[in-house]
């Protein structure tokens, strides 16, 4: 394995690490329900993506409610 002969300066190290930053998520507005959503993702509120229905949101909500009821009955 290669071993550096000299210690790297702060400037050289920081220059190399200049690309290691995080960027904030970009949000778009849903054309159907006007809620903010991440780009290239189906809307979690209405289930639309690029003008067509891709998810049945009511089915998903019913499933969540059933899990809550089952958990409450088990306790």
From TrEMBL:
Keywords: Ribonucleoprotein, Ribosomal protein. InterPro entries: Ribosomal_bL32, Ribosomal_bL32_bact, Ribosomal_zn-bd. Coiled coil: none annotated. GO terms for molecular function: structural constituent of ribosome. One of its GO terms (cellular component) is large ribosomal subunit. GO terms for biological process: translation. It comes from the Bacteria. Belongs to the bacterial ribosomal protein bL32 family. PANTHER family: 50S RIBOSOMAL PROTEIN L32, LARGE RIBOSOMAL SUBUNIT PROTEIN BL32. NCBIfam families: rpmF_bact (TIGR01031). This is Large ribosomal subunit protein bL32.
